[in-house]
Amino acid sequence: MSEFESHLLSELTGPLQDPASDPVAPLQNRRTFLARTSVLTLAIPGVGAALAACSQSGSTTSDTTHQRGRDTSRHAAPGAHNSDSRLDSAVLKPGHHPGTSATGTATAGAANVAFHRWAPELPPLPTGTTQQIHFHAREAPVRISDDTVVGAWTFEGDVPGPIVHTRVGDTVEFTLTNDVDIPHSMDFHAAQIDPKEAFKSVIKGQSLTFRFKPKYAGAFMYHCGTAPVLMHIGSGMFGAICVSPREPLPPAKDFVLVQNEFYLADAANGTRASDYQKMLNTTPDLVCFNGRPNQYVKEPIRVKVGDRVRFWVVSAGPSHPSNFHVVGEQFDTVYLGAPPANAIHGVQTFTVAPGGGMIFELVCDVAGEFPFVNHGFGHGQKGAIGLMVVEP
Q1: Matching CATH topology for 110-251+263-273 and 277-391?
Q2: Could you tell me if 313 and 358 are in contact, meaning their C-beta atoms sit under 8 angstroms apart?
Q3: 110-251+263-273, CATH topology level
Q4: Among 55, 161, 270, 342, who pairs with 110 as Cys (CB 3.0-4.6 Å)?
């Protein structure tokens, strides 16, 4: 351990309050300890989580954070302590398996789970100026290919979560209900909002509601922001929120592609769980568009000659970019920021950073089969490839 790390460890693990001199010290000590270990995890990866795990296993003090029932940021009691996105997954109960997604119901009934193609079409905008969305955090087995079922942590039981489509300036009222033992949260990259309040963690049986109005148009990621964020995204808790500008873009066939990586343990009981250590090593087993390797090779996207095609591309990572390219075509327009401004033209390939999103447009002048790929072919050949069939 370096001198800096030793000093930081000393500062963050200094003496706590004396329980004998203060009757509420045990609860305050516990909160202070968790806050310290959260900061320590950011500075020295792994150390804070390990200390938090020790605290969980040795603690007998109850925390008001873990009361059951409905909780929203608008109705929280003044001064009440609520879990936030720094709360670590080390709160897993005995018998669960920290470091993998094989928890709770993530592997239950895996043999009976059917494969389904994830529909890439952008859903229409809702009517009105306020959209109410209610997601549940759930654990579920998800079949991503004929021979692979992933034990996943999800929004609404699938990977990725549902596409959200809204408009600049409209109100999104979002509620997250947590159905599982591990705390989860929601981080919308399209929101400008206090993350300590809106993106805080929700424990089992509770719900959290917040509102926001997107300021910019574009393709944005959403994901669980509970620590370790790498584990929660890598286990399936991500999706796309597509924000249309107030003035409509040119008519097009709109498709949403969310690239993600899977880091998988060996199969057990018909399921492959996500593996946290492999995520830290950043060498994925599979890289996919919309949660399933090669699904659009087997069942392509179909359009016609003359169609303008618009891809809303989100790179969910958790660690690698999407170097998006269509073989045999060029993008006449790529929006670097909020459309319709910030456009560049005549583009062959452009990189979408992890946690980022961009909009790519082309006009289909020629009939044929056009592969769309992550042109970082080490990842393209692991499943981030599909076909766009242009019919006469």
Answers
A1: yes
A2: yes
A3: Immunoglobulin-like (2.60.40)
A4: 270
CB of 104 within 8 A of CB of 181? yes
DSSP assignment of 287-346 equals: EEETTBTTHHHHS-EEEETT-EEEEEEEEEESS--EEEEETT--BSEEESSSTTSSEE-S
CATH for 277-391 (3.20.20.70, 3.40.50.2300, 2.60.40.420, 3.90.1720.10): 2.60.40.420
- CB of 81 closer than 8 Å to CB of 110: no
Indicate the domain borders of the chain. Answer: 3-91, 110-251+263-273, 277-391
Q: Whole-prediction pTM value?
A: 0.79
CB of 350 within 8 A of CB of 360? yes
pLDDT digits (tens, 9 = 90+) for 199-227: 999 999 999 999 999 999 999 999 999 99
Residue written as tokens 């592969």? 371
| CB < 8 Å & 24+ apart, contacts of 91-96 | 91/56, 91/181, 91/182, 91/183, 92/181, 92/182, 93/181, 96/181
- From 47-56, 164-173, 369-378, the region with the lowest mean pLDDT: 47-56
| 151-176 pLDDT tens trace | 999 999 999 999 999 999 999 999 99
